Amino acid sequence: MNTQNKIQQIKTACQKIGFDQTGTDSVGQLLATLCTAKPHGRFLELGTGCGLSTTWMLSGMDATSRLISVDDDPRVISVAREILSGDGRLSLVEGSGESLIDAQPAHSFDLIFADTWPGKYHHLDEALALLKTGGIYLIDDMLPQSNWPDGHALKAEALRETLRARDDLTVTELDWSTGIILCTKIQHAHTETNTWNPTRYTQHASFVSELALPVVDLLDPQPGESILDLGCGEGTLGREIVRRGAKVLGVDLSPEMVAQARTNGLEAEVMSVTDMPFVERFDAVFSNAMLHWVRESELAVVNIARALKPGGRFVAEFGGHGNVHHIVEAMRAVFARHPDYGELDDFWYFPTPDAYSAMLKIHGLETETIELIPRPTPIDDIAHWLIVFMAGATQHLSDKQAESFRLEVRNELKATLYTEEKGWVADYVRLRLKAIKVL
């Protein structure tokens, strides 16, 4: 059944049940165009109604895109379910818009169409937090309507002012159709740390790659396979995978690291795991010592699963539960003694095996092996370690404050992590896993 036939069926069904809050075809055509502009997109519709706008959105989506649409009125969503349920790109949810918003990973949608109260007149901040950078937030019915109840005009104007005041959106107001406001997300409040010095990293943190060869063995790259190396750094492990016969694309958020990886002969691109566009492209996804830096951990898993071919494998090692516990506690203590430092941005993600396995399973990755590995790791000096790994948390400090911070942390940890015999030993705990894409 083509789009126009579905639209006509939906309009007829709406008339039969007396539902008069359907969207307009002009807004629907705009939604279709916006969805077309986001290939491999992930879309959210708040307020399915009978499915008119849903149908338009589906008409603009490519085969790899996905749409979640929610409504709490079983009478109307049943119409959408009857006419649209055969489309595998669509997930229809009967329930609370607020609950659905709260259940989604941050920065995970390319477009949100808010056509009901949740995500529009309340739960707005929570909905906007779901947008990726470059993502679109669209609302209609912002011009006065004959069916508006008393006081609604004030609510609409207050919403306009709220959106205009945000510094993370570009806002375009269109006095067209029922009144459109189209917003684009221009930044995240927080992003992964992405400034790295390859020379300093090699000098003080070469142990990261040297200790990861067993993870490459677990990956077991085969000749001719296509493998994605997430957080490729300067390319040491990617080149080892290539040496074993596979084709490797390395991605890293640091332009400096990518430039060095390319110099070292690895094909590499600047990219975040939270913005990857790949769809069923790779036989395996490999990552070492990177995923604990990603705030949007579930979105990373979503994109990893999407990048894998059916039956593909995900092999990774990163910081697990209890990793650098003493170091983190020492940093917190130093920040607590210095209110002028502000708050410590404790951005790491160190999950337990059970928690991470459960998240993988939700997104179609079945864990084959996963374990925590305590790994006390010799380092040359904790002050050098802090320069390499904590630059993002101290970048707001003056040079004098940053140096004082490192010295105080060093003194705090000397009794715990330093001995004359072994020197400095960081309290690393790694989470190592292999999972298979089953969905």
What's this model, at a glance?
With 439 residues, this protein is α/β, with parallel strands linked by helices. It has 18 helices and 15 strands. The strands form two sheets. Strands 8, 9, 10, 11, 12, 13, 14 and 15 form an eight-stranded mixed β-sheet that branches. It has a seven-stranded mixed β-sheet with strand order 3-2-1-4-5-7-6, sandwiched between helices.
Folded structure, characterized:
With 439 residues, the chain is an alpha/beta fold. It has two domains: 3-185, Vaccinia Virus protein VP39 (Rossmann fold); 198-437, 3-Layer(aba) Sandwich (Rossmann fold). It is 40% helix and 25% strand. The protein has 18 helices and 15 strands. The strands form two sheets. Strands 8, 9, 10, 11, 12, 13, 14 and 15 form an eight-stranded mixed beta sheet that branches. The chain has a seven-stranded mixed beta sheet with strand order 3-2-1-4-5-7-6, sandwiched between helices. Helix 1 packs antiparallel against helix 4 and helix 16 packs across helix 18 (399-417). The longest helix has 19 residues, at 399-417.
